[in-house]
Design goal:
Elements lengths: L9 E4 L2 E6 L2 E3 L3 E6 L3 H7 L3 E7 L2 E4 L2 E5 L7 E12 L3 E6 L7 E15 L4 E4 L7 H6 L19 E15 L3 E4 L6 E50 L1
Parallel strand pairs: 1-4, 2-5, 3-6, 4-7, 5-8, 6-8, 7-9, 8-10, 9-11, 10-12, 11-13, 12-14, 13-14
């Protein structure tokens, strides 16, 4: 049920050639969650989740509608998500990891997503994930930009790159977008196209290298539509 603890709907872990189609979820944690092992064990096995199609799914409750991580140490690649609806999930599209995981998440295509009443963010990249849900982090004030100094990059550094998101509509959200990359390994090469989000607060994009915004409309109740911090190679169209 939606109030259960650690109640993921579907964990696709270290799998190849997967289709998730026309399915519904009403869960107490992440709904459609993509994983590939945790920390050293996941890196040693080196079995990514790859070649995944998610289409025509609906999520009624959950910490995230479509989620990658945080246990993604074996990598995630070649994923297409389309024609999904998220209603009242804490976060819509949720990408999360932390130092120590390692792994590369790349080549993700997401399109035609409808969302409504998302209390946290419709779109979230959090590379400082601390094990809490987005709403728990919001309640205790740990959902802001992290200011820890950069550390050396090695096999334990997670990487998120080459992700294309388009044709997304969200009516009602807490914060429109939050990118929270690592200073030593920014979130890289993210394309947002045809995005419309109505939210209490605008988007915050931090520690990101290469973000393209084409026909992105953020309508906040207060504040700036988009705030960039420690971000480079921004393209707006």
């Amino acid at each position: 049920p939606w109030y259960s603890q650690n109640g993921d709907g579907l964990d696709v872990e270290s799998c190849k050639n997967v289709i998730v189609y026309n399915s519904s979820f009403d869960v107490g944690d992440d709904a459609i969650c993509i994983k590939s092992g945790k920390d050293a064990d996941g890196r040693r096995r080196a079995m990514p989740t790859e070649n995944l199609i998610v289409k025509g799914c609906i999520v009624y409750h959950g910490h995230g509608g479509f989620v990658v991580g945080s246990e993604m140490s074996g990598g995630v690649k070649n994923v297409k998500v389309s024609e999904c609806t998220f209603l009242g999930t804490d976060v819509g599209l949720r990408f999360k990891s932390t130092r120590g995981r390692g792994g590369i998440v790349e080549n993700i295509w997401i399109s035609d997503i409808d969302m409504m009443d998302i209390p946290a963010e419709p779109l979230l990249f959090d590379l400082f994930y601390g094990g809490k849900s987005a709403m728990e982090a919001k309640a205790d004030g740990t959902d802001g930009i992290q200011t820890t100094p950069a550390v050396p990059v090695d096999e334990t550094t997670p990487q998120f790159r080459n992700i294309d998101i388009k044709n997304v509509v969200c009516s009602g959200a807490g914060r429109a977008v939050f990118f929270n990359g690592l200073p030593e390994m920014n979130v890289k090469n993210i394309s947002l196209e045809n995005i419309f989000i109505q939210a209490d607060n605008g988007a915050v994009i931090s520690e990101t290298d290469g973000v393209t915004l084409k026909n992105v409309q953020i309508v906040p109740k207060s504040g700036e539509p988009i705030v960039f911090k420690n971000t480079k190679n921004i393209v707006t169209k």
